Amino acid sequence: MIREVSGQWWFCCPRCGKKLYPLRAGAVCRGVLAHCRERHCGWSGEIIVEPGDWRQEKPTLPA
Ligand SMILES: [Zn+2]
Fold it and tell me: Is the residue at 62 inside a domain?
């Protein structure tokens, strides 16, 4: 999942929502394995960011 926090986009843990990796607006990612560092979460999986994710989120692209 992607989320905007204070003007910065992040790939966030799909289980607990912790911010894991900063993204540039419009980023597309597949095949990168990540591990959530939040205690008691332990999610690990693939970072998947599709072009469609950005359309759904309606990001305000920085000028
Ligand atoms: Zn997590």
Answer: no
CB 37 within 8 A of CB 50: no
In a domain, 63, yes or no: no
Q: Ligand 1 centre from 4 Cα, in Å?
A: 17
Q: What is the pLDDT of residues 24-57, one digit of tens each?
A: 999 999 999 999 999 999 999 999 999 988 875 5
CA 3 – ligand 1 centroid, Å: 14
Quick one: which of 30, 2, 6 has its CA closest to 17? 2
Number of separate domains in the chain? 1
Q: What is the pTM of this model?
A: 0.81
**How far is the centre of ligand 1, averaged over its atoms, from the C-alpha of 61 (Å)?**
26
